[in-house]
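Exercise 7. Predict the joint structure of the components listed below.
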Amino acid sequence: MIILVINCGSSSIKYQLLDMKNDDVYDLLAKGIVEKIGLELGMHTYRPSGKEKVVKELPIPDHKVGMQLVLDELVNPVSGVLKSFDDIEAVGHRIVQGADFFSGSAIVNEDVMEKIRICCDFAPLHNPAHILGIRAMQQVLPSVPQVVVFDTAFHQTMPQYNYMYGLPYKYYKDYHIRKYGAHGTSHQFVARRGAQLAGLDIEDSKIITCHLGNGSSITAVQDGKCLDTSMGFTPLAGPIMGTRCGNIDPNIVPYVMKKEGLSPDQMTELMNKKSGFLGLSGFSSDVRDLNAKAEDGDARAKLVFKVFTHEIIKIIGSYIAEMSGVDLIVFTAGIGENNARLRRRVCENFAFLGLAFDYETNAAAHSDAIISLPESKIKVAVVNTNEELVIARDTMHLVQESEE
Ligand code: ADP
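Solution:
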């Protein structure tokens, strides 16, 4: 089944075209990104498998024009990988927030669209863009079934004692304020893949998955289900991130707003876009830049790594306590897959529990590998996350079921 996977942001469309033979066997036909939608000059970078990359700069006023550009490239006689649009059998969309409406993926209909719309309140930066993407796709491919896959769905198994906040209960009832988590598709994927690599039965195991990228979250996965996760009502909670502050004393919020005369929107922007690695270091949100500076002796760049590392250690420690043990710790995403030093520093703290670290394998690992020694009581894995594959699998299953 040929499936187009879409990850729509407010000014970008990331996509992959996959030919799914079954859950594990597939061909990546093409991938790409449409950027700077709505700006004077947009950009489309298209990478067909086995053919030359195509980069085009042109005005892309809205998502519909962006989607049309993608489709035109996919069927282009020179750069294309399909004969016609009709070859696309389904479209799968990544949706950041599905709140407690969705504990799994769903085929798009108007009821589903209304629920995604209600969830815009909890993900104002993401969900409106996803809606634009679905509507644009409905216009350009009206007869193709569309599926939505939620970043929050995997976390819906969290017990209530882990998703409630200590606020008056009425805010939970009236405004749906609770922990929802995020990156669920990634946590689910890497927990399964990590268990496979470590020879564990996912249904009978205690796993901690660390998705460490520009946004970072850590999840306790017990017997294949999410027990707890570090992101919260929104993806701002958890460890310090690229530009997000992560967990802070909530009283800091009104204090800074009063001191600086900030509106709620300005404070939200400060915490989401100007804090974290960027805010603390004063120069970059990117770990590669911070590494270079830290190596030159920059004290604040070094401090960022210390804060990040220790927050990760504290969250992992709390999840080990919560599950009364851990069989496997998995590292994934940009930092988790590529930063061997961070993995080493985190894992060294758990030597007292019998974690025996494989320094040599760790130093070279960027993709699926076990980086603990055979005698280790806690196994450690690096896994390349693949959220697009999960979206394609779910899309394939739902569309096949609906056709039966
Ligand atoms: P996003 O959350 O935007 O998907 P990523 O998972 O791509 O983010 O992670 C981005 C972070 O990963 C950045 O801090 C970047 O420096 C780091 N990173 C990505 N690739 C590498 C690499 N090859 N080597 C070192 N760090 C990397």
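Discussion. Residues 213-215, 242, 286-288, 333-335, 338-339 surround adenosine-5'-diphosphate (CB under 6 Å).
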